[in-house]
Amino acid sequence: MPTRQPYPRTPYRFAIAAASLAAAMFLQAQEAPADATADKEVVKLDEFQVNDVPIAKQILPTARPFNSVFGTDDNIVDVPRNVTIISRQQLSDINISSVLDFTKLTSSAYTTTNFGAPANPSIRGQTADLFINGVRGRITSNGNGLPLNFNSVESVNIVKGPATAVQGTSMYVGGFVDLVTKRPYFDGFKGTASVTIGSYSQKEWTIDVGGPISSKAAYRLSYSGQDSKGYWHNYYNKNNSLYGALTLRPSTGYEIFFSGSVSLYKYTENWGLNRVTQDLIDNGRYLTGVNSNPAPDFGAYPFGYADASGNPISFGNVATVGGTAAPVSDPQNSRWVTSGYPAGNRVVFGPTVEISRHARLLRPGDHSTGREYNFQAIQTKTVSPTFKIVNNTYWSYTKRDTLSSYYYSEVIDPSWFAENRTEFIVTEKDWTLNAGLDLRYQRTKAYDDYFFEPANVWDLTKDLSYVNVYNSMNFPNPFTSLPIPGWPGRYATDGISNGDTNDSKGSTAGLFAQGNYKLTDKLSLIAGGRADRFHAWVREPLLASHPTASITVWVPNYNASLVYKPTTASSLYATYNYSKNTSGAVGNGGGITGWNAAGTALFKDNFLQPSELIEVGTKYALYQNKLFLNFALFDQTRTFKSTSSTIIQKFHSKGFEAELNYQPSKRLYATVSYSYIVAVTSAGFQSDGGVGQFYAAKNDDGRVSGLPKHLFNALASYALTPQWTVNANALVTGSMINNFAGTLKIPTQYSIDAGVAYNTKTWGARLAISNITDEKNWGPPNAVYGNASILTLPGTQLQLTLKKNF
Q1: 16 and 89 co-located in one domain
Q2: Residue 329 φ then ψ, to 5°
């Protein structure tokens, strides 16, 4: 069993705890005037009702107060960013169960498969941040981590572009998704229980209850469970999540909202199919064959092998192995598999064959496990009608273990962080100001090994039980594979070499101010700035010498916008945002690396990667708030560290986005989104999957892989009667490249989903059909693995949900 080492207590951790406690005492001590609203909630989803549509069924973004961008309650028309608000109704109608599904409801949010379980969505061709009630909800690397559980979620705010001065910057600057969690009920006891069954042994269940404890206290409890198989062979997803919330209003004008969740995961990652060729994409034909490698000879060659000409293979002579083939050991010839670098596997290819779309690269029995704990406390003190104080404290803990025998190994042991942000919000007739202090501490121990990752050496038409590098004479790699402390039989690469493995601590103290000043009745200036003092301590945990270093940097983030309102229900805006961030130093588990090339110190530039955004747009709320239109043009540049390497890449994206929301009555609503994005990046690390024949690369700037230039989605729902409702959703993605070299192309694809529901006051049923035309669609991987991975997306699936209201 793995062992846990106690972490040393630090003054910074005590500072966050003290700030939380001091804020509670200070806010509770303040007295509000008698006219302050005692029952005002932190996020009050029932503040508005438009067109006599119940708030729970509203899809118009103008129907709710919105504070995800600047921390102040704003009219969405006046916010100078492209924003999408996804209501509880839409989450249900679209069957959202993963961040991959956001692309069905908003523009510019196409997410790569990220090994089948992305933790973060992508926005505008970049991994996006994930917030929970206004603060960062998890730290990850390259968007990879535990899947997102929606058990606690009431609605979702999707913001394109970097976080503002209030939230501060991170390595994810394409945008952010703010999950608004379920709130307690003060107006009476309510509850629902549901069961869902579906294709491929899908089984899910939920129970959600809440109500008042007294006039000053209310609660909410929600549990969800899943024990499902899936479309792919040997796939499963078993998770359990418990969420609880408590709202207290002990005195006039003061409220504290507590929430917490416990989520347990056991699932399989999904590499998809390996040996990607255009014939596979176009015709579903797979290239067969196993390796014919010789036995290694470390006595004759430093790395055990020579090339076909007899020259020793080394890091200066990266080549496919030569020499006489060793006797075949098993159906995969796994005994002689090499890491692929610098000694590439020699494969004798057979014929191409039609392969099942349910196939994928995974040894039976491989899986991932993880657990995630979150706690949040939001205090709001309304001091006067124009002044309030908000203190938001958040804590998150993640532990994760992944072992895939083809091979990838990752251990997060663990990663946790705490944040405390205090906001002083002034709202006057002609101006508003949100200013305050943000404290944050993070601690990570994380290990991974992608150096020995010969994904293309395995033949998916052979016995998959032999897909196992532990059978190989070359594993563990004597040059890069180091044992993970406390995890017998597990190996990783040192963090100086791979830029991922880390034992790290980080602390942030940031002052911020974000204001809005009305220059005239029609013109407003919005501006904000923030400076974070970030201190990092990093220890390399695998090398015998355990190099250790620290660094302190000041991280800037500022923005300015002009908003012009031709009418009270429309706006034109121009926005500029500049920040620096730590994306050049991010490590596995969201930890910190950032070593210089010599591995002797932390390189300052890795912690100060620039990002610049220019955006212009216009918004309209028309026909008595029955129709909302949103259009935006953007241009963004940034730099960041390439996945699975220490290479710093340049990125440039520009595009156009259009969104429409229409809801004339409670019987009908419709949404439509479209985006056009041109994104290019400099060359990053490009894997051949351990087999040189699949190496396709380019060294100059190229189109971002896994990103369609064109994306279109539409959703419509219509109530035939007060009980019967039908809905349909369409998603169209333009052609995209699967690898950075652009030699593998996924054509234009579409999918259509539909559903029918019957609901009464006490019970309901819903039948959903996804991909009703059974399209054979593909999902692209992270850019690094485009030569070795592509995911078959599921064909037609049925899902039946039965719900009881009480």
Answers
A1: yes
A2: -90, -30
